């Protein structure tokens, strides 16, 4: 059974005349008659009572027509939705992002983009790195805003911002009065680390490897906000990006003396996956934001 057969059937049922229906469909009458007969054969029963070229739906045809009209309306609605989603001006942009980026970065990007594309809709999913990677790999989102270290060979990467990293201590800590610190000075300090599902974990691990300095975590927290809370309580020190959501009272942010300590956040997408037309202008928007003035 083909979709065109169903469309022909509905047209014939409305005209109740083969010649008029064939003209409306721009189809020869024999071809239309053959299509209707084939449909009836597949169903195993007649759908029309015939009298010459005039035909009328029988009780089976009336019932079947109701279902076919519902199905065609549903298909048409689906086609319309797909067109709207893919339209650059009215489409849907699906983005997953790390929890901490929902405080400031992502809302500002959405606001800025919608100033120029007011009809575009955003579908947003936030979580920890493990949840996001699974969501992204399943194709549930087109784009992901995350740490650079989470990008792999099959991903495209576009930097959004680079956030300086600081050594963070409580106001009561002996280091609170320092204007800068070297990482080696943290040796022996209780360190509040991160579990693997946090996006910053890979960045810190890569930086510590490059320095050759090892830290043993006293605590491993699920997210950055929890890390900040542990530091505020005087339970240890850590290395964090100075971002909204982490700027708690009772914390002191000490610059790191070594160069290159920053958290690179960007946009990634799959090279091997189709990108809707609505998504491409957003990628261009991110790229233009990074272009020098």
Automatic annotation (TrEMBL):
<dbReference type="InterPro" id="IPR000847">
    <property type="entry name" value="LysR_HTH_N"/>
</dbReference>
<feature type="domain" description="HTH lysR-type">
    <location>
        <begin position="1"/>
        <end position="58"/>
    </location>
</feature>
<dbReference type="InterPro" id="IPR050950">
    <property type="entry name" value="HTH-type_LysR_regulators"/>
</dbReference>
<dbReference type="InterPro" id="IPR036390">
    <property type="entry name" value="WH_DNA-bd_sf"/>
</dbReference>
<dbReference type="InterPro" id="IPR036388">
    <property type="entry name" value="WH-like_DNA-bd_sf"/>
</dbReference>
<keyword id="KW-0238">DNA-binding</keyword>
<keyword id="KW-0805">Transcription regulation</keyword>
<keyword id="KW-0804">Transcription</keyword>
<protein>
    <submittedName>
        <fullName>LysR family transcriptional regulator</fullName>
    </submittedName>
</protein>
<dbReference type="Pfam" id="PF00126">
    <property type="entry name" value="HTH_1"/>
</dbReference>
<dbReference type="Pfam" id="PF03466">
    <property type="entry name" value="LysR_substrate"/>
</dbReference>
<dbReference type="InterPro" id="IPR005119">
    <property type="entry name" value="LysR_subst-bd"/>
</dbReference>
<comment type="similarity">
    <text>Belongs to the LysR transcriptional regulatory family.</text>
</comment>
